[in-house]
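queue> holo job accepted (6-O-phosphono-beta-D-glucopyranose)
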Amino acid sequence: MTSRVIPVAPFTLTVFGATGDLARRKLIPALFHRDLDGQLPDDATIIGVSRRALSDEQFRAFARQALTDHIPGNELEGPEVDRFLARLSYVAADADADGGWSELAQRVEAFPEHIPVYYLATAPHLFGPICERLGKYGLAENGRVVIEKPIGKDLKSAVALNQQIGRIFPEDRVYRIDHYLGKETVQNLMALRFANALFEPLWNNAHIDHVQITVAEALGVEERAGYYDTAGAMRDMVQNHILQLLCLVAMEPPASLDADAVRDEKLKVLRALKPIDDQNMAAVTVRGQYRAGASAGGAVPGYLDELGSSTSSTETFVAVKAEVENWRWAGVPFYLRTGKRLASRVSEIVVGFKPVPHSVFDANVGPIESNRLVIRLQPDEGVKLWLMIKDPGPGGIRLTHVPLDMSFAKAFKVRNPDAYERLILDVVRGNQTLFMRRDEVEAAWKWVDPILEAWRNAKEPPRPYTAGTWGPSAAIALIERDGRTWLEDGA
Ligand code: BG6
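queue> job finished
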């Protein structure tokens, strides 16, 4: 099966932080893949910017290495590599000083008919200063700006940052990336819900018992411990990725996939989240921190060792029982959990349906398990619908729970594109559907802030869990108290 490739309009993409980790691991490989598929127009241009003094050639050598490190060798054998590298040039400029900016302006203005895109792959404290200089040098006029999380560390700082950016770029040219929205399976959630008549009539509290959203990582924080310790799992994963997933599950059908139609519906979900504060925090949240343990068959250090500190109250695990207070979802818990150094890397959404209202079978046929829809985001992307069927064979009826199993890798023999491939080109297309609008980000912080505050007020350290397990036992108790259980690995 081949993918349909529609080339985008000519663009000049300026990447700030071009020698950083995000550019190296994600942006350069993603752009190359789109080029390889023939989606970049001949004159698309990419300008790298960072403080380091590099020539165009040195930057191209850096990019070549990034491709070698992150792209399979067989995709690097053709003439496409040199064609891609020829698109790249480099300007040394500092967000806090004027040096280099006139040269950058000249390079961008050399292509007046191109769509100018500015990707801020830098530390967040530079977002404001870079936007200001883009404005000062006349580059913001038609430009689109792309920023990454963290967008603030609480509501106040997010509002301040959004205002700073908003003074230079109007909202319809601000692209806030949540890379989870660019993942194939996350978009598939919309296809599943809105391109099938089957699910929508059941998609409510009359038929759904509960929803689980798990984003589990096997890796620890490793060399990102410095940043991570200022954030923690709530800010790093829940405020953005997990709440976005929750929104896509819980939102009303939008009238279209138009950016604002979708984002209006997501915003309503965020605003309908039941507040969690000092009163209910202990009953509905669990925070944990990993201790030394085992992962992938080897011993791994604890969080404090990775951080190089004897103390930290930063959580590397969070579980929350969330509720969406509206007619569709009243009484349906959304159990959310995420953590580092868990038993395996798995991200999935489990929609658990209610049991059948009455059994016509004899008690000895075995329990009638509830139907479940499992959307596996990664790895092994796919969808499973668990049903009860009759065990084959003669004799009386025996029932068994089996999945209708749709593995994307088996069904579509195409490479699963990285989220950034889709998202960067959506910026060029001017399609904001998969980007977070300002009010969404702020509504998410509005829900998260009181939880963080309640944790601070409680002054309790995060609960320890052994690396390589599913988190603190309190997280298991959180769901089992309600007579339910966490489901892992497509179960
Ligand atoms: C990032 C977080 O946004 O998402 C990281 O900052 C996390 O801590 C990562 O590891 C997970 O992304 P993915 O695509 O690997 O699931």
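queue> Residues 181-419+437-480 form a domain with the Dihydrodipicolinate Reductase; domain 2 fold (CATH 3.30.360.10).
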